[in-house]
């Protein structure tokens, strides 16, 4: 199916929230990982979200070039074309964009979509993230408030991070400490600045102990019940439905099914997945190489086996392994078998 229209994307998120599931949002960095996500979502009968970070966009542009806006546009162009071959619907999103990357990443992409929309088309990306977790909350929200009208004008959705996700992802790094937990006051400040949809739609990555990457059990203490407490506090203050905010779950690798289920029950409609799919892809490549070392290497004057060192041979194995992890994510989040395509 073609990439989701703005209306389809909004309907996806509304449906997830009203019926109690979330969409997995997969970070990609190559055509192979895009295809793996599309394969996995198709096998799971699930719609979903494909996203790219600043580092992923740099890589798409060519690792010696590092033109992230061009790389992101290349990612989107490829995804828009190949997605037509799959019977599911996906939306495109740009992930973590810190303050020093705005002018070289998100802003040029918004401008490109503005031109597309002016010509009667749909935005190139259906949502963009502004990651203000490294600046004071007031500044974070002021920047979000400036970006939101442009996002609304192209009929896209803004994602903001309110709080701090620990660990490191593409150069955005935070310590693991008490700052990993968003407060109700933080959420109220967000609503006061951005509204509840009247100034443009946004998703909020509230933090409840989230950490990027993989950590041994006991090192990370998730409190997904905090999301429910914040939603209830906002509902009481503003007289809205029980879950006023559309929430995003960052740093979910290694989370238990119960933690994920609680987060989704409290309004999470999108969960980012990166580390687990990276490992699934690379583990399959490693398995192929170790199992066929004498065929993929020209050892002792031999010639190897072209059929096994051909990048397509191990690439298919890697894509299929990653696709299986993609399908697993849809089961965890409840989107399995729920494609509307």
UniProtKB/TrEMBL annotation:
Annotated dihydroxyacetone phosphate binding sites: 213, 251-253, 272-275
Keyword annotations of the record: Glycolysis, Lyase, Metal-binding, Zinc
Record's cofactor remark: Binds 2 Zn(2+) ions per subunit. One is catalytic and the other provides a structural contribution.
Active-site residue list: 95
Catalysed conversion reaction: beta-D-fructose 1,6-bisphosphate = D-glyceraldehyde 3-phosphate + dihydroxyacetone phosphate
Pathway(s) this gene product operates in, as recorded in its UniProt entry: Carbohydrate degradation; glycolysis; D-glyceraldehyde 3-phosphate and glycerone phosphate from D-glucose: step 4/4
SUPFAM superfamilies hit by this protein: Aldolase (SSF51569)
Cofactors named for this entry: Zn(2+)
A GO molecular function held by the record: zinc ion binding
Pfam families recorded: F_bP_aldolase
Entry's EC annotation: 4.1.2.13
Gene3D superfamilies: Aldolase class I
Binding site for Zn(2+) 1: 96, 212, 250
CC per GO annotation: cytosol
Residue numbers binding Zn(2+) 2: 131, 161
Keyword Zinc: yes
Example GO biological process: glycolytic process
Group of enzyme by EC: lyase
InterPro entries membership: Aldolase_TIM, FBA_II, Fruct_bisP_bact
Family: Belongs to the class II fructose-bisphosphate aldolase family.
NCBIfam families, A to Z: cbbA (TIGR00167), FruBisAldo_II_A (TIGR01520), PRK09197.1 (NF006628)
PANTHER family, alphabetized: FRUCTOSE-BISPHOSPHATE ALDOLASE, FRUCTOSE-BISPHOSPHATE ALDOLASE CLASS 2
Purpose of the protein: Catalyzes the aldol condensation of dihydroxyacetone phosphate (DHAP or glycerone-phosphate) with glyceraldehyde 3-phosphate (G3P) to form fructose 1,6-bisphosphate (FBP) in gluconeogenesis and the reverse reaction in glycolysis.
Descriptive protein name: Fructose-bisphosphate aldolase
